[in-house]
Amino acid sequence: MNDEDARPDHSEGAPISTRQDSSIERALRAGLTDFELSPEDEALLDSAGPSGADTGPAGVQPVVAVVGRPNVGKSSLVNRILRRREAVVEDVPGVTRDRVSYEAEWAGRRFTVVDTGGWSADATGIHLRVAEQAEIAIELADVVMFVVDATVGATDDDEAVVRLLRRSKRPVVLVANKVDDQRGEADAATLWSLGLGQPWPVSAIHGRGSGDVLEALIEVLPEVSAHGSSVQGGPRRVALIGRPNVGKSSLLNRLAGSERVVVDDVAGTTRDPVDELIELGGITWRFVDTAGIRRRVHQARGADFYASLRTQTALEKAEVAVVLIDAEEPIAEQDVRVIQQAIDAGRALVVAYNKWDTLDEERRYYLEREIERELGQVPWAPRVNVSAKTGRHMDRLVPALETALESWDTRISTGRLNAFLGEIVAAHPHPVRGGKQPRILFATQASTRPPRFVLFTSGFIEAGYRRFLERRLREQFGFEGTPIEVSVRVREKRRR
Q: d(Cα 453, Cα 370) in Å, to the nearest integer?
């Protein structure tokens, strides 16, 4: 190639290499026309654009949590809002056990609606877990739709939910369900006694009154979420997570420069995570602490469950997780689970080893071996060795957070991605299985936060080969401090 060829082509505004990547992308996309693509495939390809540019969200959609005691018709109401039968409905209580989110739209306003299991004040066992999931949904919601069975009236459990809602200080839309005719409206009117404002009479099954209650919802619904993962332009949110007694609260107090967090919170507190705005490295961060779980887990409700539950709450309110590990003690199974939780939640990740200043040479040697053995799945996570007690190496935390978040937000152009994968596959093709060798037809980055890649292929891609591709993507593009996802869509050729 001569010097003239190497110079950027200003007439097209792109260097030669960029234009070559774009040419590869166009050729591969053209080849996709020979394959059966679903409407979802077409939408994904259209959203990627010619260069995979990512304009970023203007803000997180507002979140509406639908709560109430079991069998009051929450899932039926969700289906009515969605205008399709999506949530599972049966005439027995307890069908919905987890929080399930759906995208919804009304009067041109888009929002996320969260269906929850039934809340009960005296729940035990699996029902306790359902109730706690409903509590988390309320905490992460912008508006709550509280559903009451108008034919039964307000029960003691309903009164308990009211107290929970008042503490949450969220706007509440009170739904009096199962009002199938005008006679039932008198029953709905008795729910004024709950003190939550106007009860809206609705028949979720038949649709009666659903338009009115949705108009009431839109009136109190914010434009963007104030309680979701993050709102663009606000402080980056950091979750301090880890098993009990590893020093999370001590670390937060050290970062804040004051005793902001009580390590042992008052027994019986329902909301343990604490948000603190802290300036570090000239940047304001919002730290979400999970202090206080130690007292709660002394109640006979399952230590692992509560630790996991509070960790999940903090993660859902955060963008990056700092997993704190006690370097003095052997790495425990619960440490590994907490790290996996952060990965499963799709959050950026930094691993901090606390009490580093107390380690002798022998312990440091064995800790390194434990890290290799127990945490071999996260060699990409930035590591910092700190001491919450003395403040040692605290200055290393901010660069690690910035690196992880930058990777979390990274987008690779579609042309560059396909050119890179073409080179990899040419040098290391997928093994032949059953006389066939699957081909990667086209690849695109579907989203960021974390980076998610979708491969359109002519056949099944084995898990080992996916891990190989993920490893090579990390080697080429970095992605230090963020999980990445590689999913495969197998598509067949169109029939002539």
A: 31
Q: What's the CATH number where 159 sits?
A: 3.40.50.300
Answer yes or no: are the C-beta atoms of 129 and 180 closer than 8 Å.
Answer: no
Q: Which of 140, 148, 137, 157 is nearest to 196 (CA)?
A: 148
Check if the beta carbon of residue 41 is closer than 8 Å to that of residue 491: yes
231 assigned to some structural domain: no
Residue 11 lies in a domain: no
Q: Is 13 within the bounds of a domain?
A: no
Look up residue 480 and give its two tokens.
């230090």
Predicted pLDDT at 128: 57
Q: What are phi and psi of 35, to 5 degrees?
A: -115, 155
Single pTM value for the model: 0.66
The burial class, CB within 10 Å (0-12 / 13-18 / 19+), for 204 is: buried
Task: Compute CA distances 40 → 36, 48, 69, 459, whole Å.
Answer: 12, 12, 36, 19
Q: What is the mean pLDDT of residues 181-201?
A: 92
Question: What number of helices (H) and strands (E) belong to the chain?
Answer: 16, 15
* pLDDT tens for each residue of 442-459: 999 999 999 999 999 999
How many Å apart are CA 467 and CA 472, to the nearest integer?
Answer: 9
In percent, the amount of the chain with pLDDT more than 70 equals 75
**From CA 489, how far away is CA 221, in angstroms rounded?**
36
- HSE-up of residue 192 (Cα within 13 Å, Cβ side): 5
Mean pLDDT of the chain: 80
> CB atoms < 10 A from the CB of 190, how many?
14
Q: Which long-range contacts (CB under 8 A, 24 or more apart) does 13-20 make?
A: 18/415, 18/416, 20/419
Same domain, 378 and 425: no
**Structure-block tokens of residue 161:** 């939910």
Q: Which of 407, 436, 453 finishes a domain?
A: 407
Q: In this predicted structure, what is the pLDDT of residue 83?
A: 81
Strands 109-115 and 63-67: parallel
Bond preceding residue 171 cis, omega within 30 of 0:
no
Split into its structural domains, the chain has a count of 3
Domain span at 171: 63-220
d(CA 172, CA 411) in angstroms, rounded, equals 38
**Residue at 137 is within a domain:** yes
Quote the CA–CA distance of 260 and 276 in Å, as a whole number. Answer: 8
Radius of gyration from C-alpha coordinates of the chain: 26
Q: By three-state DSSP, how is residue 92 classified?
A: coil
- Using CA atoms, how far residue 222 sits from 60, 62, 141, 294, 390, in Å, is 11, 6, 11, 35, 43
Lowest mean pLDDT among 109-123, 138-152, 202-216, 396-410: 109-123
E strand or H helix that includes residue 490: strand 485-490
Least confident span in 90-99, 225-234, 245-254: 90-99
3-state SS, residue 196 = coil
* Close Cβ partners of 9 (under 8 Å, ≥ 6 residues apart): 15, 16, 19
